[in-house]
Every structure is written in structure tokens, then in C-alpha cells.
Amino acid sequence: MFLWVHYADMVTALVQLPVAVVAWWAATGRRATAERPSRTSAVAFAVLLGAAVLRLAAGVVLLRWGWEFAGPRLVWVAPALLVAATAYLGWLRPTGRRPGGAGAVASAAGIVSVAALAQLAGVGAAAVTGVAIVAASAMGYAYRRLPRRPVPARAGRWRAAVRAAVGVVAVAAATVGLSMASALPARSSMSGGAVDDGGGAVAGHQHSGGISVTELTGADGGEAAVRRFTLTAQEATVRLDSGAQVAAWTFNGVAPGPQLVVRQGDLVEVTLVNRLPGAGVTVHWHGVDVPNAMDGVAGVTQDAVAPGATFVYRFRASRAGTYWYHSHEMASVQVRRGLFGALVVLPRDAPARQDAVDETVLRHTWGDEDGVATLGLAAGVQRRSVPVGRPVRLRLVNSDGKPATFTVTGAPVRVVAIDGTGVHEPGVLPGVRILVGGGARYDVEFTMPDAPVTLRADGPGIVYSPSGDAGPDRAAKEPALLDPARYGTPAATPFAAGSHFDRRFVLRIDERLGFYDGRPAVRYTLNDASFPDVPMLMVAGGDLVEVTYVNRSGQHHPMHLHGHHMLVLSRDGRATTGSPWWVDTLDVGPGETFRVAFRADNPGLWMDHCHDLEHAANGMILHLGYTGVTSPFLTGSGTANHPE
Which InterPro entries match (predicted)? Predict the structure, then answer.
């Protein structure tokens, strides 16, 4: 959709180029060589021409690098300012033999360009344009104060009419645009707001009474072993394998943070200590179905832990699997800077094997999206020594928002778990490529052969070999891409596509240019709304819930539902046929439609958001709410809580 927007704007800019030439001709008269144009006319022509060129350049850049490129967002604002100024410079002080001609042509070009830009880019651009026109009015007033030649009556009336028309456009654009830009409330409470009851109806809603999320702490008694950890958020400098140093935010001074290993059934107690200067922090247990009060989402389940303060998380590790933890306060910034780590829950009765290799591999990009991709802190190729015949389990974690392709070659391999849930009867593959969405995890196993085995992750890699010094096999054949919907064999599930669902929801994903939280942005929407205006999905305890994700955008969106695991029922209308595919983070690719289901068996107020955290920061957040549950916490500007 956005490609067509750019094509339309580039066509508008192309039309604007000859209009600029016509404006020059009208300002100078038919006998251009006999009369020198005024400075104002020259400036009008230059600005109009410059705006057209700038918009063309913006279109080319956006088509080449896409909507995630930050610079062109500002380039879209600059033409609005230039075109608005052009409209005034062109007619407030026209000169030459045809004073009305310059005003008519330049004003028409300016108004059409402003209207087109505002319509294509969204009402946010109208706010910018309105402000620009108001500013240009002051400049125009100064020009009107300058001496000038008498203007014929007809030209004066025409100029007054154009001035009135532009004034109407300015007032309308400023009023509509600024009102929309200010529509985002300074604070948002999870106790109320719009709700969706599963029948498609949207209405205002305010809980009265009920239970607070702070009371949903879960049972922490019993005779289970207690595993205690301390995570201290602090600044530290970490060194990549290239020698480059990164000023990071870390847990316990290391990045990634320390790996926490517990047994299924253990009671986990983690004390968070915040020593970051001037920034709050939380810890979210990604993929672990913790009690709601322990979910670690600032503004929803707790207040962000202030500098110098502490918070204790307590939950039972009920499901074995590969998980990870990260801050959920300003997550789009703090996770990228290093506040994340791995959490591994081993099976309850699995014996400790000294002869097995069990390695967690976290892929992370330091810096912006075009920064340095690493496995741990290594951007290059790492080497591991593994004796022949030893079983190897690799726990692959993508801490980035964009999907990453993990490739294993050199040995027969099985994919044994997805998002912490085992795959039923995983087949042996000669090698495998796995597209791991943002926040997702895949576990793979192989037995070490007498030749090197290479793991690659879109750049960085690890080579396992008996000698420990082998290089990657660059001649290895590219294996097939894993299709989780067809891998493994079917098994019984507590519900299926044909079950009776108590609640059904459809979430349509789009993207558009505009303003979000008072700044120009690519807004990501769910059912044409951005947080906090996306209706909350309301359920009752015990409900069987079906959700359909329809991605109408050109981006990948890893949808992460807190506190629950979803069973994937179908993709693009085709039912899954392999092992039951359970996820907590589902990567929904461009144009894809997924139908998933889950049981509402964990009361609370839960985030359901895109785990491309830049998308979440630009509005792609909604919540799953249980009836009768409220939250005392606030989020947004004016509070200490910014969950994304």
C-alpha cells in the first residue's frame, strides 16, 4: 500500500516541476528578457522547485530503503514547510506585467501539493502543514509591509480570493491535524478504555470493584526447591569480538545477562536491583506463564523500578523449555542496549548429563537495525570443540525484532521444541534453515559427527568440530526452510479448529504515515487504531478464545501474547498438519493470515503486542483483559511507566 503512496507523491512532484517553470514565466511576463524578475519571485521559484526535487529524493530513498529508514520521515516534513512557504511567497508580493498570474499559479501549486501531502501522509502531516502556513503568514505580513507598485483592481480581487482560500485551508489543516495529534492521552489506565467482547462490538468500559493485578501473585508455597537470583541493572562497557566497545545497559555487568537455569517445578525468586542513572526498569519473563503480578510490564502489572529501588519476582517454573527475560520499560531502547538474558527450565526428572552439550545461542543486534549482529558478543565465527558421538542441543533465541534465519549444516538434525514446547515426533532432517521471528525460540539437536557442524545466523556463526579449530563449510548445500505447520506428527490437543469458541477476535494489521505520541512516525495499527485506542480483548476465566491475525502491511510482526500459549490452527486458510504448533510469539509475515486459539486460564491484564519493539513503540499494542480484573498503574507521558 505504501509503495502506491510513494508513487502517487512522486507523480505529484513531477507535476510540480513544470508548474514551477510556469510560475516563473508568469512572474516575469511574456518578455522575460526585457524585465528582471523580483527577488521574491526568484525565491518563490527556487522554493517550489526545491520542494519538488526534495520530494522526489524522499520517494527514491523510501523506495530503496523502506519505511523503517528514519531520515525520510523528516524529509516528508520539510516539503510541507517549503510548499506552504511557496504558496505565500508566490502571491503575497507578485511582480511583473501579470501580477495576478504569478499568484494564481504558485498558490494553486502550493495548495494542491499541501492537500496531496496531507491526504497521502495522514492527518499528522496536516498538523505540520497548518503550523507551517501560520508561520508563513507572519513572513507574508512582513512582505506586505514593503513598498510595491499599484496592483490592478482585478488582480487585487484575485489575490484576496486566493488569500482567503489558503486561509481556510490553513485553519482547517491546523485544527484537524492538531486535534488528531493531541488525541493521544498523556496517561492511560488499564482499568478502563475501549473493550472488544469478542462479538465485534466496541464500547466504553469501566470496571467497578473486582480484583487488582497486584493480588494475582500465584501460589508460592509448597515444598518445591527455591532458586534465588539477583539481577542488578547497571551501566557497563562490553567488548565485541572485533574489539569494538559498546556502552551497554546490563544485568550484573554482563551482556547478555546471566543465564538462569532452574528445574521444572522450582520456585524461582529473582531480586531486581536498579542502579541505572535516571531510568526505571522491570523484568519480563518472555514465554513463561507467570502469575499476572509477576509479568514485569511497567504501567500494567507494576510500576517501573526506580533508580536505587528493588523488586522481587516470585513464580513457579511449571513448564520445561527455553525462555528469556528482558526489561519491559522502554523496551525498544533497553533491550537493544543489553537488558536481556536467557532462562532455561530443565525437565523435572531429567538426569544431569556430563557428556552432553547444551548451549543457549542468543542472537542480538547492537546499535540500530543496521548495527552489529552477534551471537552473544561475537559478530564473527566462533569455534567449539565437541568430541565425536556427543549429543548437542542448541537453544536458539532471537532477541531482535526482525526475523533471523538460523541454519545448521554438517549433521542430521531434529527440531525438538518451539517456544518452550516440545515437537511431537520430530523428523530427522539432513540440515535445516529456520526463520525465527523476533522473541521466538527453537531448540535443535544433533549427534556430533567426525566432521564440522556449522551454525549460521544471518552473519555470525559457530563451528562445532572434534578438533575445535575447523572453519565453516562454505560449500555446504543450503537446506530447506523449516515449515512448523507441516513438521512432526499430529498429537492430541485439548481443543482444535472445530471446537466451540466462547470468544472470537479478528486483528487486522496495517501501517500508515502520521503522528504518534506527538512525533512524526510510521504508525502500526490493529483494526485501524493504535495504542491506547485499540479495544481490549475481554474474556472470562475458562473461555476458549480464537484470534485471527490478518497482516495487511509489508512488515513481519511477531505477535507476543503474555501469560498464555497459543495453538496455531491454520495459516492462510490451510490447517496445520504436523505436530501441534504451540507458540507464545507468532511471526506473522506480510500478507499472511493466522488463526490461533488459547484457553483463558491465567487471570489478569496481559499485553498482546508486536515484538518488533520499534513497532510496539509506534502503537502496535493491545491488551487481553479478564472481566473483573483492574490495574492501579498508569502509563504514558506524565508517569514513570513506558512499557514500549
Answer: Cu-oxidase-like_N, Cu-oxidase_C, Cu-oxidase_fam, Cu_oxidase_Cu_BS, Cupredoxin, NO2-reductase_Cu
The H or E element spanning position 172 is helix 153-181
> What average pLDDT does range 253-278 have in this prediction?
96
Do residues 114 and 84 touch, judged by C-beta distance below 8 A? Answer: yes
The CATH number corresponding to 191-209+493-635 among 3.90.1200.10, 3.40.50.2000, 3.40.710.10, 2.60.40.420 equals: 2.60.40.420
Encode pLDDT of 558-617 as tens digits: 999 999 999 999 999 999 999 999 999 999 999 999 999 999 999 999 999 999 999 999
Q: 261-287 as b/e, with b when 16 or more CB fall inside 10 Å? A: ebbbbbbbebebbbebeebbbbbbbbb
561: nearest Cα among 608, 505, 509, 605: 608
Segment 353-394, tens digit of pLDDT: 778 999 999 999 998 767 899 999 999 999 999 999 999 999
DSSP string, 110-138: HHHHHHHHHHHH-HHHHHHHHHHHHHHHH
Question: Phi and psi for 28 in degrees, rounded to 5?
Answer: -95, -15
464 Cβ partners below 8 Å, 6+ apart? 357, 384, 386, 392, 410, 448, 452, 453, 454, 455
Higher pLDDT, 625 or 177: 625
Query: What's the rounded Cα separation, in Å, for the pair 101 and 90?
Result: 10
pTM above 0.85, yes or no: no
For the segment 74-121, what is each residue's pLDDT rounded down to a tens digit? 444 444 444 545 554 444 444 333 334 444 444 444 444 444 444 344
Q: How far is CA 84 from the centre of its chain?
A: 32
For the domain spanning 355-482, the CATH number is: 2.60.40.420
| CB-side neighbour CA atoms (13 Å) of 180 | 21
DSSP state of 350: P
Best CA proximity match to 616, nearest among 334, 235, 343, 418: 334
* pLDDT attached to residue 599: 98
The CATH H-level (homologous superfamily) assignment of domain 216-352 is: Cupredoxins -  blue copper proteins (2.60.40.420)
Q: Do 117 and 169 touch, CB atoms closer than 8 A?
A: no
Asked if 248 and 337 count as a contact pair (C-beta separation under 8 A), the reply is yes
Distance of alpha carbon 14 from alpha carbon 614, whole angstroms? 33
The C-alpha cell of 569 is what? Answer: 490452527
CA angle 222, 273, 344 (to 5 degrees): 50
- Whether the link from the prior residue into 532 is cis, omega within 30° of 0, is yes
Whether the upstream peptide bond of residue 256 has omega within 30° of 0, thus cis, is yes
